Amino acid sequence: MEKEITLKINGEEYTQKVEPRTLLIHFIRENASLTGSHIGCDTSSCGACTILIDGKSAKSCTILAIQAQGKEITTVEGLATTEGVHPIQEGFKENHGLHCGFCTPGMMLRAVELLEKNPDPTEEEIRWGISGNLCRCTGYNNIVKAIKYAGAKIRGAELPSTEPVFVE
Amino acid sequence: MIQCKTSKEIGGMGHSMKRKEDDRFVHGKGNYVDDVKLPGMLYMDIVRSPYAYAKIKNIDSSEALKIPGVLAVVTGKDLEQYNLHWMPTLMSDTQMVLPVDTVMYQSQEVAAIIATEKYIARDAREAVRVEYEVMKPVVNPFKANDEDAPVLRTDKEDQKDNHIWHWEVGQKEETEKIFNDAEVVVKEQMHIPRIHVSSIETCGCVADYDKVDNHLTMYMTTQAPHAIRTVIALVAGHVGLTEEKVRVISPDIGGGFGGKVPVYPGYVIAIAASFLIGKPVKWIEDRSENLQADSFARDYHITAEMAGTKDGKILATRMKVLADHGYTDASANPSKFPTGMFSIGTGSYDYSHAFMEADAVYTNKPPGGVAYRCSFRVTEAVHAIERITDRYALEIGKDPAELRFQNFIKKDQFPYQSPTGWEYDSGDYEAGLKLALKTVEYDKLREKQAQMRKEGKLMGIGLSTFTEIVGAGPSKDFDILGIKMFDSAEIRVHPTGKAIARFGTKSQGQGHETTYAQIIAEELGIPAKDIQIEEGDTDTAPYGLGTYASRSTPTAGAAAAIAARKLRDKARKLAAHLLEVSEDDLEWEPGKFSVKGAPEKSKTIQELVFAAYTNHPQGMEAGFEATHYYDPPNLTFPSGAYICVVEIDPETFEIDVKRFVAIDDAGNIINPMVAQGQVHGGLTQGIAPAMYEELIYDDDGNILNGTLMDYLVPTAVESPNWETGHTVTPSPHHPIGAKGIGESPTVGAPPAIANAIVDALKPYGITHLDIPITPAKIFEALKEKGVLDKPIVG
Ligand code: FES
Ligand code: FES
């Protein structure tokens, strides 16, 4: 029943024998031991498992591992390079875009694709853009702020202030 | 503006320091329970009941056991042999671990599969055949004590009906007299819906029992690891798992909100399985299992009444609650408080009399009664008082803001004795509401509303000016299973001046690794970045009751400040020794002691710590460590003034939250950025039950929305852009004047939203709508009033 497959994740090849029904998220977490991608639901609703497949965001709980053969997969572990953290990682940290951190990897990867398509999105575009990813902790304000910040960084524009703003 | 006493370099209180824990999370290096992988680990899956109430005729595991890789199918009968088939709840009721003969709610655990792999365990789950004899369940709590209702808890000898307990507080007769004589009495029946915390990480554990050492290491999603260790020892001590043989590790937690306080059957079964097989057993529940079987929150049916004068003076309130607890009382409340802190429901207003009572019943629904980001039933109480206050304002035709100003407890009345027995520590309710009104430009907004109403548009403005009660709690009244609700901090400073501090609490995203370090930095002058914070390992951390009910800052935060002050006292002695002056001649500024009048003669905290290891005076204990167990003298009483502005589409009745302004007063703030983040998150969990979330059951006890497809957790689209601010009224009894912030917004937001929606519908005679308020509910209500015969917009 088991089948040998090779998946390329964050530029590295993982060859493993798996059952054909193995979900991609399970391959990533169990077979490749990359536990940064999470599982938050069983109905493709939460986005905690979001990764990039050939640069496009996808919910890895909804794809079989074998379907991802021959494609470039990026997980949160692949965001930082030897040059440093990815702008989206910096954006989330600097703007308090996370609390428990469970939704964060999926949220960031979804944002990477959004910013790839449009590095200067409006608040509305960001909110609709991440509406497939649930966060139970942050109330989203600072996630929006984090994505805007990362967009500015990618564009090379002036970085917005990361100080919290209060009504006074 | 928040004033800081320390430099940015030290990063004490008031600095919006970036969080120390974030690096690991943004790199995907968090360590959550499902990331724990041990050699030889087995996987557990659970067979659940499709029925709400049924007799188990037979469980046939033979087909499941034939599947290669399946090691065992554990049933209630197996556990019965070890007397592990029932366990105590936090409220001294009892709960099944696995049923021996009867299931009491849909999705209840019926049997557990232990297998070598996750997928195999799932296959086996499908192969177990269970024969049921279905019975008619009790679903409606109002009918739980009807003549023909079956008595559900036949396991309890003295139980002759489905009534669990009665509770009351206040002045019954006097209150009744005031109501009889009052010029104005208003009354509404409300339901605070059954909801679910639905943290994005579900619950789970890895139970690792070592047969040789007779030692259990339990990795689990718990907000209260120490209490859990004690409970395990109490429940399983008779099979050899005494407390020194148990280590509970709570790794990174993906959100808790109260849902990770209880002990769920899955944890206990995993321990039993690991104990019997001698291998680590992992159990991670699915989202649907989490929604359908883990503790619910709320589910209070409240009759709220207010008596007052025609010109707006509140005289008394009365509340009557029917609490639906499911088949057992598994609430997470302090022992003496079956309704938690519901008696805070007299609110922010000054009047002398109140009476509250509650009755709890058993039904065929999952047990629970956890918090959902609130301190023990405070949300229910606040919703009732804030809604009925608006109802009163509507009745006498007074502006709801004006009515609130008229009745607020005034700043100089604190400490304030409430008619239900609490002593509010401090508050400045007027200041908060004034700032909120100014921010939304209230008067202009009302003018705009009048104009819009003329045009047939539905616009509403809702207020909520609430008082919370958090930081449980003083040992006199507060315990869980007899253990007093103190909390603890232990600080060790290393010779080079860097430190590690450990706590009895457990962050689930609140940012303790940063904020606790800031409290210590404030008191000791050691930079917060040099202080490592650890929680969640019972082998290393001092004992504490954990993180929930906004208690971490009020209890463990206080413990940190006091432990740090003990160390500062020691540093002063060391400074006197090194500088050869008397202690009285020394002056402290964050980070160093210097000689009064000769500031060039000084020693930094780092130098003093080094001396504690290298050059301490004769007679002084070496080293630089301190521990403190903090027993709070009172609770803390955060407050808030929230204003919500909505517009409702006159054709689809879609509700658009146009603005939401939240002014919180949580006393002194440790980290404004983190505090604001907590408010944002709490507000989204406030809009959730106000407009979207409710666990719905049909007459047969089937859950109708037990997955994230239909249980509507708000996304970034439903969640508006929150506008937040604060006033600062320090708690007079707390060492750093802080009160706790994580839950206020979840408590305060729903009535502001409900009040805004009802206000929008005021021209059509609507006085109340139960949350979650959906377009369908508005449609029904308007239809009932007969106003839909012609379109609302002319
Ligand atoms: S785990 Fe929830 S969408 Fe994939
Ligand atoms: S940070 Fe906890 S779910 Fe998003």
Key phrases:
heterodimer; A: 168 residues; alpha+beta; Ubiquitin-like (UB roll); DNA polymerase, domain 1; 2 domains; five-stranded mixed sheet; B: 794 residues; Aldehyde Oxidoreductase, domain 4; Aldehyde Oxidoreductase, domain 3; six-stranded mixed sheet; 27% helix; globular
How many angstroms does the end-to-end distance of chain B come to? 48 Å
Query: Regarding CATH, which class of the largest domain in chain A?
Result: Alpha Beta
Number of domains of chain A: 2
- Please write the CATH class name of the largest domain in chain B: Alpha Beta
Task: Give start-end ranges of low-pLDDT stretches of chain A.
Answer: none
The CATH topology label of the largest domain in chain B is Aldehyde Oxidoreductase, domain 4
Strand content of chain B: 25-35%
Write down the overall geometry of chain A: elongated
For the biggest sheet of chain A, the summary is: 5 strands, mixed
Mean pLDDT of chain A: 97
Bound compounds = FE2/S2 (inorganic) cluster
For the biggest β-sheet of chain B, the strand order reads: 3-7-1-14-11-12-13
How would you characterize the overall build of this protein?
- The complex is a heterodimer of chains A (168) and B (794).
- With 168 residues, chain A is α+β, with helices and mostly antiparallel strands.
- Chain A has five helices and five strands, in the order ββαβββαααα.
- In chain A, β3 and β4 (56-59) form a beta hairpin.
- Chain A starts with a strand and ends in a 13-residue tail after the last helix.
- Chain B is 27% helix and 25% strand.
- Chain B has three domains: 22-30 and 487-630, Aldehyde oxidase/xanthine dehydrogenase, molybdopterin binding domain (Aldehyde Oxidoreductase, domain 4), CATH 3.30.365.10; 33-135 and 203-284, Aldehyde Oxidoreductase, domain 3 (Alpha-Beta Complex); 296-472 and 634-785, Aldehyde Oxidoreductase, domain 4 (2-Layer Sandwich).
- The relative contact order of chain B is 0.13.
- In chain B, α13 packs parallel to α14 and α14 packs across α15.
- A seven-stranded mixed sheet of chain B has the order 3-7-1-14-11-12-13, with helices on both faces.
- Chains A and B meet through α1, α2, α3, α4 and α5 of A and α1, α16 and β33 of B.
- The structure holds FE2/S2 (inorganic) cluster (2 copies).
